[in-house]
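mind reviewing both lines:
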Amino acid sequence: MEHFVWNVNPNIFELGPIQLRWYGLLFVGSFFLGLMLLQWVYKREGKDPAVLDNLLIYIMVGAVIGARLMHCFAYEPEFYLSHPLEILKVWKGGLASHGGLLGVLIALYVFSKKYKESYLWLISRVAMPGALTAAFVRFGNLFNSEILGLPTDKPWAIIFPRVDMIPRHPVQLYEAFAYLFLLLILVTLYKKITPSFASKILPGIFLTYMFIIRFLLEYTKTRQADYTTSLPFTTGQILSVPFIVIGMLWIIWAIKTKSKNKLN
């Protein structure tokens, strides 16, 4: 059976030491598309979108620092503890989505304090562009021929010649399309429910959906950590469990508080 061969150059162009990579373009581009989405949200709710340029900076810095540190110390700790200066070389690759989320949450907290914004309102609205960025990052992984799936003979398997000639699950696409569907769910709910309930329920839906997907799709991925544990789970699955639990508890809290408010 013939399989699709993905051999796209990860660089859009090169000029001496300067490179423009598809991954970087998709990563940064997702933030600007997310900015447009947040502008719509701010205008829809009668808020001043002038602060969004500063919010974008906070989110980007938090995402990059958090994702980089999580990758270094959760997936390749021995290497980076032995070569600490390599942590700064983000352009070499290595970003972990779990850390990126934590970094964004911390950045949003700092932003909410400085600009006197409701933290709950903020994280619930940023959840929508957050799903978009997660999808674009996985499209970027596809261009880099990284985050590889396990070998399979499924007709939709993809061969990555820059790695090997083995047909593999296109797990990057599995995740990317799953996160785009999450974006659709969040935006649809946001438009249909009250703003106050959206502030409560959207973060829980985001966490539960995203990390259940992440946990399940780990079964189709090659292991990314450079070490093994005695547990029957990957590092990505172990890191996903707390987010799933928090997300489910968050949804329960949101529904219960809504019911109490109706009774009152």
Observations:
- The mean pLDDT is 90.
- The helical segments are 22-44, 52-75, 77-82, 97-114, 119-143, 171-192, 195-217, 235-263.
- The longest strand covers residues 11-15.
- DSSP finds eight helices and five strands in the chain.
